[in-house]
Amino acid sequence: MKITIIGTGYVGLVTGVGLAELGHQVFCVDTDPDKIKTLGRGEETFYEPSLGQLLRKNLKSGRLQFTTNLAVVINQSQFIFICVGTPSLANGSADLSYLKSAAASIKRLAKGGKVVVIKSTVPVGTNKMIAKMLNQNSAKLFAVVSCPEFLREGKAVSDFFNPDRLVVGATKESVAFKVINLFTKVKTHKLITDWETAELIKYAANAFLATKISFINEIANICERTGANVSDVAKGMGLDKRINPYFLRAGIGYGGSCFPKDITSLMHIATCQGYNFRLLKSVIEVNENQRKIFVDKINKVLGGVRGKTIAVLGLAFKDNTDDVRKSAAIGLVKQLDRLGAVLNCYDPQAMANAKKELPAGVKYGRSAYDILTAASAVVIATEWSDFTTLDWLKVKRLMKQPIIFDGKNLLDPKSLASLKFKYYSVGRP
Ligand code: NAD
Question: Disulfide check for 378: which of 2, 311, 374, 423 has CB 3.0–4.6 Å away?
Answer without folding.
Answer: 311
